[in-house]
Amino acid sequence: MTRLNEIQGKTRKDVLRLAEGPAIDGHIVQHSDALHVLIIDGGIVSFTPTEYPLVMHLLQQTERQHSLDFLVQWVRQHASSRCTKSSLRRHIRNLRAKLWPFGLDILCIMGYGYMLHATSPNESEPSALEIVSLPA
User: Fold this and answer.
1) What is the pLDDT of residues 85-104, one digit of tens each?
2) Helix and strand numbers, DSSP H then E, in the chain
3) Is pLDDT larger for residue 10 or for residue 51?
4) What residue spans define the domains of the chain?
5) Residue 126 preceded by cis peptide, ω within 30
6) What is the pTM for the complete model shown?
7) Any residues with CB less than 8 A from the CB of 61 and at least 6 apart, and which?
8) E strands, 1-136, where?
9) Hey, which residues does 114 pair with through a beta bridge?
10) Was domain 2-122 assigned CATH 1.10.10.10?
11) Cα(31)–Cα(88) distance, integer angstroms
């Protein structure tokens, strides 16, 4: 209900405004903080109030690896969430499933933590939009 109240308090123009970036390895990314949405290469991905700040942080810090402990503390501070290591792992699994069709993944660096990884949109694999539009 809080998210609905937040959106209702904004004007229609504020809610529908898309911001560009962050750019990642040739992928075109836009985002809406009010709606917790990313548009990746034209495809829309919706996130929960906990997932959205986490994925935005990872998108803005693609060159860095983040320990599980750091990410738990970061989510607690920025997503107003009672995050634990096990719940963060669940959120990361959910993010992977949502990002994978768009050529993005969250890598687990054994013994250290996590980082966002992107494949080039020019690689031979079809994009998520091509997969969706294949004839039945």
Assistant:
1) 999 999 999 999 999 999 99
2) 6, 7
3) 51
4) 2-122
5) no
6) 0.72
7) 115, 116
8) 19-20, 29-32, 37-40, 43-46, 66-67, 104-109, 113-118
9) 66, 108
10) yes
11) 22
